[in-house]
Write a structure and sequence with these properties.
With about 60 residues, the protein is an all-alpha fold. The chain has one domain. Helices cover about 65% and strands about 0% of the residues. The chain is built from 3 helices and no strands. Helix 1 runs antiparallel to helix 2. The radius of gyration is 14 Å and the shape is elongated.
């Protein structure tokens, strides 16, 4: 489910970066940065210093995140 939050925010930032400076939606950019930052902070807390979400092995959970 987290990937949906990332996808929306990161895609918005990517598409806005393709526009000329004057055509960019500053409000959308700030909102997307904020949401992506919140999700990265959440993941950092969840990882708690570990390299993977569910232990030592790379799993589908790591792909989704």
């Amino acid at each position: 489910m987290m990937d949906l939050y990332f996808n929306d925010s990161i895609a918005s930032l990517l598409f806005q970066s393709w526009k000329s400076e004057g055509a960019r939606d500053r409000e959308l950019i700030e909102r997307s940065r904020f949401r992506a930052g919140m999700m990265y902070d959440f993941l950092e807390r969840r990882l708690n210093g570990r390299p993977r979400l569910l232990g030592g092995d790379f799993t589908l959970a790591d792909c989704a995140a």
